Amino acid sequence: MGSRKRATAWAAVLVVATLVQGSSGFARAKRKVPTRGEATQPLRASDVTSVSLASGLEVVHLAVPRSAVVGVALVVRSGSADEEPGARGTARLVEHLMFAGSARVPPGEHARGIAQLGGTTGATTSPDFTLFYDAVATQHLDHVLALEADRLGALLLRETALDAAHGLVSDERALEERESPILGAMEASRRLLFAGDPYAPSPAALRRAADRVDLAAVRRFFERHYRPDNVTVVVVGGLSAEDARAAVERHFGALPARASAPRQGTLIAEPARGQHAEASAAVPGLLASWRIPASAEADMLGLAVAAAILSDGDDSRLSRRFAAGIPGHAGVDAASYARGSVLAIGAIVDDAARLPDAERALFEEVARLAREAPSDEEVARAVARFTAILVPELETVGGLARALGEARAVRGDPGRPLATLGRVAQVTPAEVQRVVRTHLAAEHAVVVTFGPPTTGGAPR
């Protein structure tokens, strides 16, 4: 949680829109896309176009002149927050089943076929969406779209495939439990922040719950959410918007429209505030979290810069504070959702006896940032680090397709990642101070302390 790269990465992902099911308990797989498709000139949010087919399926396009590679993202605008209450974990299972065969594509052939073409493929699930992505040479675009359309329109849902998906999810859970030393603290924090809401279960909790999901629940979820009017197809590459729309129409146009289905739940109006909890973990530390309402989405960039000032790099405020006398390190993480976001500031200490000192330092530094605006130099340094993380995410057509798709699902605006590049340079010290004062009051934080269990079974 305290590494320099991770502390900045959360901020870029927060504004790009993603979930980020980023660090610690929020695992997100990434695959590198071909570098031949790098954008060679500045791209603008106004370059992004969107049209809908007769079925309601949306086509988002961004032209990257002279690109030899095309990026495709198929975005289902439903995720784990849309699962039936008694069938949590279904969205992740369906993500795996989308690679398990369809009417004209044998099991596993989607991934194998893309690899044989020299491309890459993958998928990710968040509370708000499930996204499937491909990057291939432009001449293979029709092949990719045919694969995507076939599994959207004719996925084969079978018991044997579901058994295999259960095994994959179980393996993911075991890996996450081994690699995340503070998984329990992240789960406890989410339970408090989103008590009674579909966002409450962590990815790890959803993977555990998936063991109980049967084929009937999978079928209901697929039929309810994997329908054309709930899907966006993003195409990024050297072809025109007209050619992209025509290509998508060729392969998806025959899919029939289906009746819309509402989301499963709505976000609770008031977040948990001022609550404390304990959790077992391999190392001692604490996690202070705040829920940021969706209505304050415009403040996310300021909060991203504030987070970098607090914890990104050896010259950040918390790093200097810890170096002055608290053995340990601090970091920031976040998750961004369609119906609100979470910002968490955490600390891991070498000695559990120093936890009170770490908690006091953490809240004192946040309070100081709310009381006194940062310097121009601090803001400039934070903006530069933020941009250094964001730009690589958007410099390939595959990365652009994913970012635009996620932004469409989470914020309703596929051009937002490109707009962010211009907006972040305009963040001022006064804005940073204002958003910290507005959203990060100590009395509004949910605090989880964690550590190895004592002989009585409770954290130290």
Provide a count of the helices.
16
From the alpha-carbon coordinates, what is the Rg to the nearest angstrom? 22 Å
**CATH architecture classification of the largest domain:** 2-Layer Sandwich
The CATH class of the largest domain, by name, is Alpha Beta
CATH H-level superfamily of the largest domain: Metalloenzyme, LuxS/M16 peptidase-like
Number of domains: 2
What is the 3D form? globular
Residue runs with pLDDT of under 50 for 5 or more positions = 1-36
Strand content: 15-25%
Total number of β-strand segments?
Answer: 11
List keywords for this structure.
about 450 residues; alpha+beta; Cytochrome Bc1 Complex, Chain A, domain 1; 2 domains; six-stranded mixed β-sheet; five-stranded mixed β-sheet; 16 helices; 11 strands; about 40% helix; about 15% strand; globular; disordered N terminus
Task: Tell me what the structure shows.
The protein is an alpha+beta fold and 460 residues long. The chain has 2 domains: 36-252, Metalloenzyme, LuxS/M16 peptidase-like (Cytochrome Bc1 Complex, Chain A, domain 1), CATH 3.30.830.10; 276-451, Cytochrome Bc1 Complex, Chain A, domain 1. 42% of the residues lie in helices and 17% in strands. It is built from 16 helices and 11 strands. It has helices at residues 4-16, 90-97, 109-116, 141-154, 159-179, 183-193, 203-209, 215-225, 241-252, 300-311, 317-323, 355-371, 376-393, 397-411, 416-424, 429-439, and strands spanning 49-52, 58-63, 69-76, 120-125, 130-137, 231-237, 276-280, 285-292, 328-337, 340-349, 446-451. The strands form 2 sheets. Strands 1-2-6-3-5-4 form a 6-stranded mixed beta sheet, sandwiched between helices. A 5-stranded mixed beta sheet has the order 7-11-8-10-9, sandwiched between helices. A hairpin with a 4-residue loop joins strand 4 (120-125) and strand 5 (130-137). Helix 1 packs antiparallel against helix 10 and helix 2 (90-97) crosses helix 5 (159-179). It starts with a helix and ends in a 9-residue tail after the last strand. The model is unreliable at 1-36 (pLDDT under 50).
